[in-house]
Amino acid sequence: MFKKIQIFVLAVATFGNVNAQKTKINSGERPKLVVGLVVDQMRWDYLYRYENKFGKGGFQRLLGEGYSLNNVHIPYIPTVTAIGHTSIYTGSVPSIHGIAGNDWTDKATGKNVYCTADEDMKPVGTDNKRSGSHSPKNLWSTTMTDQLMIASNFKSKVVGVSLKDRASILPAGHNPTGAFWFDDSNGKFITSSYYMNELPKWVNDFNNQKVPEKLLANGWQTALPISEYTESTADNVTWEKPVGTAKDPVFPYNNLLTDYATKKGVIRTTPFGNTLTLKFAESALDNYSLGKGSETDFLAINLASTDYVGHSYGPNSIEVEDTYIRLDRDLATFFKMLDEKVGKNNYLVFLSADHGGANAEGFLKANKILGGFFDDGMEKNLGEELEKKFANSKIIHGIDNYQIYLNQSLIKEKNLNEDDIKSTIIENLNKDPRVLYAVDLKKIGSSAIPEPIKTRAINGYNWQRSGDIQIVSHDGMLPSYAKKGTTHSVWNSYDSHIPLIFMGWGIKNGESNAPYNMTDIAPTVSALLHIEFPSGNIGNPITEVIGR
């Protein structure tokens, strides 16, 4: 009898293993389409702050069907858009992939460098060189989109879409099918000669539909009765900066269509910039037949309006809340479209953010929380001190990305001692009540800065492109240009704690509070696709997501 029971148990176990093997994803199987959604300036807590205002098809669908990582952080500073998108797609950090900021100072010439600017490229779809002369030439590492192209022998199709040039170009990688962004000078999606010599007919057709005008025609009213925005501060507070020509930051904004006639970029600081982006992404999907071929395709989308609205109003505003309510509806429409055109079980989507956002200084002050402006008068005061000691007040090129850039050519010309200059600056900064730490970036490895700040500063330091001295401010300290609205760049949780949700092909429902980094996204997607990790990758696949 005991033997019979043993045989039965073995048979059941064997049957179970067979079934498990059948449900396990075969190494040769891949989704038809990967969709990367990076929501600009989305803090992790927005998923739950506005949860009761969301419908079933957008963020709640992601949480209900997907796998959510609740403890994902950015492992470097400064936390800005260009670096965030690059690090998501390379699995790497500025020290390695080379994108050290949205901008940085060329140490040889002292000139400003924009991350994707490329004077050798011609604008396509516009006459505006500033808008259109761009490429990924400053990106040193490959992206997961690059690796997908290599793995498929360039049979896959990769498309980048954003209102922002950098948020389309850097995720799309070095050799995509196309990368497109919005031109404020003509109100159209454009590209550069790096990718193609003329816009495809479908892009021209889309641009000719005048979608922005249609989206702005009725202005911007709240999606819900304004009395229901109980998660936000009052509609009119002093620390918000209104959109367009509006005199006050108060709903409704009825002047948007008139503003757009003279300033196309106004659509960026409205929820309708996200709607426009997703409509263009759908058109790209249709016209490139993404998800219809034998190889996996990739659609990299940045939703940028959340960032522009956040910068103008701060994270506790009705404007930000309404933007996320409307984005939730747009995502529901977008996911339904993917279900119909690609197939519900045929696409893999991940949603994350390039960075978060700080509370506005006025909001902090009104609620008795530490805040201020770390650089107010700082450069002037340091210049006066350097004039006294070194007879030169022009030693500092500028303060950017919470870093001080020194005028290296002047130091060399005047035969000044760089270490003495740095010591003088750091000594003075450490007397500033707004500064928590100031450190020579070349010597940060031996500094007394605690973890995780030290590692994040090291990861963010690119010796060829970063500044010379890192400033770590006290919590809540913003740069002085953000006296209205807010910004981001620091190591603190409000800037570094980001959402990460995977949904669709090969993904089970669940959540984890285990610690992960932004740099784990690329190797996770790569592992799901069974392709090589990006060349500069330092992250690891998230095994809870992969299921093994």
Layout of secondary structure:
Elements: H1 2-23, E1 33-39, H2 46-49, H3 59-65, E2 67-73, H4 81-90, H5 94-97, E3 103-105, E4 112-114, E5 123-124, H6 129-132, H7 144-151, E6 158-161, H8 165-172, E7 178-183, E8 188-192, H9 201-208, H10 211-216, H11 256-262, H12 272-287, E9 297-303, H13 305-313, H14 318-341, E10 347-352, H15 361-366, E11 372-373, H16 378-390, E12 396-400, E13 403-406, H17 408-413, H18 418-429, E14 435-440, H19 453-460, E15 469-473, E16 477-478, H20 493-496, E17 497-504, E18 510-512, E19 516-517, H21 521-529, H22 543-546
Parallel strand pairs: 1-9, 1-10, 2-18, 2-19, 6-7, 6-9, 11-16
Antiparallel strand pairs: 2-17, 3-4, 5-8, 7-8, 10-17, 12-13, 13-15, 14-15
Description of the structure:
The protein is of the alpha/beta class and 548 residues long. It has two domains: 34-364 and 491-546, Alkaline Phosphatase, subunit A (3-Layer(aba) Sandwich); 375-433 and 435-473, Gyrase A, domain 2, CATH 3.30.1360.150. It is built from 22 helices and 19 strands. Strands 1, 2, 5, 6, 7, 8, 9, 10, 17, 18 and 19 form an eleven-stranded mixed beta sheet that branches. It has a four-stranded antiparallel beta sheet with strand order 12-13-15-14, covered by helices on one side. Strands 3-4 form a two-stranded antiparallel ribbon. Helix 4 packs parallel to helix 8 (165-172), helix 13 runs antiparallel to helix 14 (318-341) and helix 16 (378-390) packs across helix 18. The protein is globular. It starts with a helix and ends with a helix.
